Amino acid sequence: MIQTPSYKTDYEAYRERMRRLADVKAALALMQWDQETYLPAKGAGFRAQQIATLAEMAHKMATSDKLGAMLDSLEESSIPDETERKNISLNRLDFEKQKKYPASFVRKMSEAVSRSFNSWNQAKKENRFSLFEKDLAQLVELKKEETQLLGYSGHPYDSLMDEFEKGSTVKLVDRIFSNMRPKLQELLEKILGKKTPEDAFLYKSFDKKKQWDYGIQVIGSLGFDFEAGRQDLSSHPFSTSFNKYDVRITTRIDESDFTSMLFSCIHETGHALYEQGLPESEYGLPSGEYASLGIHESQSRLWENHVGRSRAFWKFQYPLAQEKFPDAFKNVREEDFYKAVNKIKPSFIRTESDELTYHFHVMIRYEIEKMLISGELKTQDIPECWNEQYRKYLGVEVPSDKMGCLQDVHWSHGSFGYFPTYSLGSFYAAQFFASASKADPFLAEKMETGNTEELLQWLRQRIHASGRLFTSEDICERATGETLNVQYFLDYMLDKYQKIYEF
Ligand code: ZN
Question: How far apart are CA 346 and CA 393, in angstroms?
Fold first, then answer.
């Protein structure tokens, strides 16, 4: 009689295959990280080619017949372990999705992205949208092609959003945004009618090296493991990971703005803590990957806003900042500093905007992207449309494309459908933080002494440890007892700003 081999051997072979794919993807991510940090200008052309080749290789591995056959056979076995079973079914979905992309499309897209990234960089430097427009137009065309390859039932943009946040649709996001918009607008009007906190001391002169050192201290205090990651400089702050023991974050330094680097450091640390908290043994498998970009962003926004912009955090951190920057802060009270870093002020730059107007920045990009993908807006008309929306929602006159439609790196990466996850992340963050605070009534008191360890553990257990095994909504429900409820965010905002602005 022939003994059927146990599924374990098959699972091990599958796992080995996925690890190899993860190795190639890590090499690809490392090259991209380098492209945005240290790559010399003349290396850009070959780098684009190298990245495209690796992207093509990864795609081939992810769609190989061999992998397909392995999944077939594993699907036929009865696997007792739930995690293993889920990995197989999630991998099947990835496999079918990847199969929809012809290899030639993957290469074309990768080359277009590298080209666009370079022309965006140049256009931003020279403040000339026209230098980026042609490449962007080509990228938008490729993205439209992608929506056709992937298929969609509602809006073509649905298929692009789904890539970053599974299950999210124009219908759903429209509903959330149209519910939030008037409420945020009302709050904004209330705040703008009040006396604005003094914040000139945040915009004095802050030595580059001292800022960097201060940032490193803050990052370390939040639990970032410097033996499993590092920080570097780049023109647009970002985070990336090659495995949980090698997580990279980047920042930028503005010598005349204390907040620019600091909050980007805290934000990217939030992303990094998530990556450093993924299970080591699951490397390469869905159970070892982040759940979604909305959940990723919930982590960065939670650390940036609910921790980094909280009174409790500054109780501990402010004396350290005063010691480092006595010229700027020695005569500023902690309470005034706290109010200053939470000042609401409609402005141009998303990454430097306050917690309230931030969502208008996101909604504007979301509306523009939808129109680009549906063909209602041409790329050459972006600056005009952009400036018009800023006038309408934030009442500001955009002075230049550099401060306007050229500010974000996303479009040059072909990341259409990404921006809504920023707002969703903030809404999830408020709900997670409310839950963590309920579970530990001493959370704020601990933060006052610089202790955020228990908060990190709460996030590790409820969010980080399960990788991609659950959808965003399931993670939210498991962690907080209910699915996404934007009221947590609204309550948090109201409570915080009522106190700061005294209304
Ligand atoms: Zn982020």
Answer: 9
Q: How far apart are CA 383 and CA 401, in angstroms?
A: 7
Q: How many CB atoms lie within 10 A of CB 153?
A: 7
CA of 353 to the centre of ligand 1 (A): 13
Q: Which residue has the higher pLDDT, 479 or 118?
A: 479
443/424 Cα distance (integer angstroms): 24
Candidate list 84, 165, 268, 297, residue with the active-site label = 268
Q: Give the predicted TM-score (pTM) of the model.
A: 0.94
Backbone angles phi, psi at 115, to 5 degrees: -65, -45
Whole-angstrom distance, CA of residue 13 vs CA of residue 402: 50
What's the gap in Å between 454 CA and the centre of ligand 1? Answer: 22
Closest CA to 185 of 364, 388, 394, 26: 394
CA 224, CA 274: separation in Å to the nearest integer? 10
Say if residues 339 and 354 touch (Cβ distance below 8 Å): no
Cα(347) to ligand 1 centroid in Å equals 19
Q: Which residues pair with 229 in a beta bridge?
A: 247
What letter does residue 412 receive in the DSSP assignment?
A: G
- Give the contacts of 418 (CB within 8 A, at least 6 positions apart): 164, 293, 410
Torsion of CA 14, 16, 18, 24, to 10 degrees: -150
Q: Rounded to the nearest whole angstrom, what is the distance from the C-alpha of residue 261 to the centroid of ligand 1?
A: 14
In the reported structure, the alpha carbon of residue 428 is separated from the centroid of ligand 1 by a whole-number distance in angstroms of: 13
- What is the Cα 163 distance to its own chain's centre? 13
Taking the CA atoms of 92, 94, 97 and 103 in sequence, report the sign of the dihedral they define: negative
Q: What is the pLDDT of residues 230-275, one digit of tens each?
A: 999 998 899 999 999 999 999 999 999 999 999 999 999 999 999 9
Concatenating the DSSP letter of every residue in 324-336 gives H-HHHHTT--HHH
268 catalytically annotated: yes
Beta bridge partners of 243: 246
Average pLDDT over residues 349-376: 96
What digits encode the pLDDT tens for the residues 384-429? 999 999 999 999 999 999 999 999 999 999 999 999 999 999 999 9
